[in-house]
Amino acid sequence: MTDILLVYIPCKSEEQARTIGRHLLSKKLCACINIYPEMESLYFWPPKSETMEEAHEAVLIAKTSKALYQELEDEVTKIHTYKCPCIMAIPTENINKPYYDWLKGELK
To answer: Where are the membrane-spanning stretches (predicted)?
Structure first.
């Protein structure tokens, strides 16, 4: 297991994903972002209701360290437009050394 996390953040649009990603990069809270511009989500909203919502979203993946996760989460929470955004950290098992070294060098 490494100290690097992939942070999964669904956003209302590709534009919002890019805005959040650039904000995180500028603060050195992540070394790299990936944006998947089209995803379809289905969920019940409001919580505990029988109303199933369908949404077209974009996915932002931010690559960061465990040490920076909480600060990254706090920043996303401040600027994300969702009332209850999904900010989910996925641990990484292995990373090739040159990429790991580059990634760590880009973080604050």
So the answer is: none
